[in-house]
Amino acid sequence: MNKFSPARTTQTRGVDEITASRRLRRMRKADWSRRLVQENRLTVDDLIWPIFLTEGENVREEIAALPGVYRLSVDVAVKEAERAATLGIPAIATFPQIDLALKDETGSQILIADNLINRATRAIKAAVPEIGIITDAALDPFTSHGHDGILRDGIIVNDETVLQVASAAVLQADAGADIIAPSDMMDGRIGAIRDALDAAGHQDVAIMSYATKFASAFYGPYREAIGTQGLLKGDKKTYYLDHANSDEAMREIEQDLAEGADMIMVKPGLPYLDIIRRAKDEFSLPTFAYQVSGEYAMIEAAAANGWINGEAAMMESLLAFKRAGCDGILTYFAPRVAEILKG
């Protein structure tokens, strides 16, 4: 018999001797014991549902790259917000698809008090006051070039963009937004928004900072959803984070907290679990992740082809965020997960 054979090893030294009687499978032997020692749990309270808005009435338009995700007119968005509240989802985040004719170089439509995003906020708050509304003050849905800031001579100008983003944040708060979540990654935007909100009497409106938003390949379906995919000139590497950098991400978080952020977000999600864990360990602040469109689309596509169990992969991916330290997750799966959790 080969000296390395399993039989010889077992005869020479028993498992209890090898493990000092610490058999780690004991608590995995049954469903009840696995549940008893489970370290992390996903609940409906962890879910934030991103929805896409469009003009019109009774519009529910499926997004090709995001099966099961729709652009919604305001009236339909209200109904979906009611459904979310019934399921116990704490908050929704809204993102508009703006008519191409309303887009321009500076994204000026974001400064219209009655624009699509603000009309939706008012309507949802009137119908479902108990649900939280998170809005993004970034310019990319509103610009003709698809960038998150004002483009001048091929450069995204920081300070002028910050002034416009801060003004937009006040209009969104005026409409009833509970949390402003600026995703533009301009320097100084958090402090400028906090000052503008406070000056306008919105001291209770919180800021969720996209503190670590990376220049990622996983945003493609989102850009289709808001109508910027064919518009983007160049890339966003001069303001989004290099996905190779972790220390820089921590500096961004530290700066945003110093400027007044109430909570932070890591975006994308699964490829950046190390950033989530490090952020939670270093700052002990409410920490969120955005399971972005590319992550959702990969799971859906693999499931549609029969390559994975879609529901199991969906739940596993979300629990991974909790294990990494997230207090909540923005995910397009939110209503589906809430229904599963409701049982």
Short description:
The protein has helices at 6-12, 15-19, 31-36, 74-87, 116-127, 158-175, 189-199, 220-226, 247-259, 273-283, 293-304, 310-324, 334-342; strands at 47-53, 60-63, 66-72, 91-96, 132-135, 150-152, 155-157, 179-180, 206-213, 263-267, 287-291, 328-331. It is an alpha/beta fold. It has an eight-stranded parallel barrel, surrounded by nine helices. The protein has a two-stranded antiparallel ribbon with strand order 6-7.
Mean pLDDT, to the nearest integer, reads 94
Summarize the helix and strand pattern as letters.
HHHEEEHEHEEEHEHEHHEHEHHEH
Largest sheet: 8 strands, parallel, barrel
- Estimated share of beta-strand residues: 15-25%
Walk across the major sheet and give the strand order. 1-4-5-8-9-10-11-12
Number of strands: 12
Structural class: alpha/beta
Shape: globular
Instruction: Specify the CATH homologous superfamily of the largest domain.
Output: Aldolase class I
Radius of gyration: 23 Å
CATH class of the largest domain: Alpha Beta
The CATH architecture category of the largest domain equals Alpha-Beta Barrel
**What number of domains?**
2
Poorly predicted tracts of residues: none
Query: How far apart are the first and last residues' alpha carbons, in Å?
Result: 54 Å
How many individual helices?
A: 13
CATH topology of the largest domain: TIM Barrel
Helix content: 40-55%
